[in-house]
Design goal:
Layout: E1 2-4, E2 9-18, E3 21-31, H1 38-56, E4 61-64, H2 73-92, E5 97-100, H3 102-110, H4 117-128, H5 137-154, H6 159-169
Parallel strand pairs: 1-4, 4-5
Antiparallel strand pairs: 1-2, 2-3
Amino acid sequence: MGVDPGLVDTGFGVLEAGPGAVTVVDAGVISTSPGQPLEARLNAIHAAMHRLIQARAPGLLVVEDLYTEYKFPRTAILMGHARGVIYLAARQCGVAVLALSPAEVKRAITGNGAAGKGQMQRGVQTLLGLAELPRPSHVADALGLAVTGMARVTGRLPLGRLQRAARGAS
């Protein structure tokens, strides 16, 4: 299961690996209102993630790591809060967490560590054989995290094959 953390929108994507294929089991966004107090938003993210993890029982939760360079330090702190409640939900459900950098995921999916949102959406669409682009971009990022985490940890999806497929989609 991949998770793209955010205070307004947290994207998630659940994949299942079968013989020769990877299937999208569930994908979507957990949204909170910017008008709510921070603690209410964090509680909503935690509760939704906890329910989702319990319902889907993933073998691994792959979360986007914090960027090393934020223009606004407050953004990094707020993202850290969101990541913290996601980590807590995973721990409470007994699921291991793997953090991957955005550049690593972009490189695995598109072959370009600086790929834009559109490139990521097209790469994920091609790799997973989706009829439509995954939207919003938070969902594409979460699915990309799940694919990359699966490839990195289990070796079931060779990254070279993923990159070749993604390049063919561009």
